[in-house]
Amino acid sequence: MVASRSTCLRRHVGAVLVRKDRIIATGYNGAPRGLGHCLDLGCMREQMGIPSGHRYELCRGVHAEQNAIINAAYYGVSTQDTVLYCTNQPCIICARMLINAGVIRVVHRGNFDDDLALQFMREAGIEMVEIPSLGR
User: What pLDDT band is residue 100 in, cutting at 50, 70 and 90?
Assistant: First the structure.
């Protein structure tokens, strides 16, 4: 449901942070507050010919996992000892943020290949759970 709010033209991703079976924050991929959305301006990455999984910094959008952490901070809610549920496997940038945010478990549907992200999260002791997509 959260992913349906995405304003990305390439991929709709949603993330939910949960503590003690309660949702504390959500996030979806899209442009920062107050900036134009890809839906309106077009995909910068597509226009520049950047393939998925490369040069994450060259994008108008903020990842869903990042937005969930940011939204928790914005509203003054601690992310320590939380579980992240995400439609996709986090990338390496999100993995580092999740580690520092105190996330202890990530439940995802895969659909994004970033072995370094998986390695970092496992090294940090984050439990990784992949739930197969319906189409697999």
Answer: very high
Nearest 5°: CA angle at 35, between 109 and 60? Answer: 45
Give the pLDDT score at 99: 98
Distance between CA atoms of residues 62 and 69, nearest Å: 11
65 is a catalytic site residue: yes
State the catalytic residue, choosing from 65, 123, 127, 130.
65
Give the mean pLDDT of the chain: 93
Helix segments in 1-136, DSSP class H: 38-41, 44-48, 64-74, 92-101, 115-123
The 10 Å Cβ neighbour count of residue 117 is 21
**Burial class of residue 37, CB neighbours in 10 A (0-12, 13-18, 19+):** middle
User: pTM (2 decimals)?
Assistant: 0.91
